[in-house]
Write a structure and sequence with these properties.
single chain; 8-stranded mixed beta sheet; 7-stranded parallel beta sheet
Length: about 500
Amino acid sequence: MKKKESVIFQNKVSRFAAARARLGSMACRKLFGVQREALDLVAVPKGEVYRNFHVLTLVRRSEAESMLDENGAPIKAREIEPNNSLIIGTIRMGFGHWRIAIALASAAHSMGVRAYLLDLMSFSGTPIEKSIKFLEGIYNSLSRFSQKSKIFNTLIWEPITSGMNAHLDSAIQNREVSKLFKAAFEKLPKEIPVVAAHPWVGWSAVLCGMKKVVSMIPDNLPLAFWLVEGSVHTVQSPSAYMGYRTLLHMEKGAPILNCLPQEEIVQTGHYVDYEILASIKSDCEMRLEREKNHEARRFLLTMGGAGAQAAKFGEIANYCKAYIEQEKVCLLINMGDHEGRWNELKRELEKISIPYQMHTDWEETQSFAEGAKQNKLAGVHVFLHSDFYAAVYCTNLLMHVSDVMITKPSELSFYPIPKLFIQRVGRHEAWGAIRSSEIGGGTKEADNPQILRRILKTLIEEDDLLKLYIKNILDNDKIKIYDGAINVVKIAMK
């Protein structure tokens, strides 16, 4: 084994750990092969991400030649322009990585920076797409099962998500896996900055010699999984800065003798879309106005990318049934693109005789969100969109018109809306709830049904918690805690 394969950030990793790190990439190579030929990428104006933020999507040149716009006319592909531009690299794997990419797109658009979107999952039919889809399928299945089996969650899933991913050999594993994705970067202009919302993107860019790579770290819990040697790392909080800077608890066997260099890590603040950032004050004022007028408390329930919360949403709806009938509560449930999970929740709602209104048309959903700024809402509204962008961005739109967001402590922990945190999916997510509760933007994690019902009752029948969270969010905004996405763009464009 080559020496460099067992050294990272000038720290040695055991030869056994380095060898084991290659197993994932070896499995993908055996199953799907390797993309030998470099992808020839061009930029096209495509989908909502272009309409909303003028972000151009990178596609294969051969694919662009057959693409049509909404009017049936051929789409004109554009060459990649390095000047005043950046590439937002992500993976359509769960919702978190995509939501962070959208936040970056929004921030770049507000600053007049041209952004290109590179999604490694979008190159259909290639070993790149097949490998990621295979690995994602395993993760999603285990995530859903962890919510159904307490024994599996406690003994296996939580140790994996907070233990195995914590050690430095996890970064080496990502480096090995990312060699499978290099073909997407080999022909890109080397001087254009790459902002990576997933470490596989960051490693692929570094391994291909991209000159400026920024790795966005979402987790508050220090996990070597997110580290990309050769990039600048950004974190959202002081505790994350300390943890990643000192490689806290990342040793396994061999001791850690060297920290992450100071020049390779920056605390930026929370990664929040510019549209949400710019309307924090007005959104909070509307929440206070609705509370003053005794309108139904609006709870936004958000399904995660793995689709693990359907049963929990059914429990919440069941508890809130009397409040819904009395028009004291309105539930806005975004199921993302999880039709199977919606069918599961649908059975629960029909079993307890709770009527609901479906929203599946993206244009109508946008109109609903806009109208909800003035209109009173009641009942249960369910949102389900097959388009991945709509599935993710629906939550962003509904944040503006919701009073409290009910979510697992994921990337949404850092958004400026009062939050009620339900059970995490993996121990690493617990630290999102800790961060939010400490800065006064949301509850602690309610991982027990009795505690969850008690918090719900308090948020529905009384106003002190809601007002507390709103005040703290406004105070946090004054000291620019939510400016992280803008600061990441600034770092990339230096």
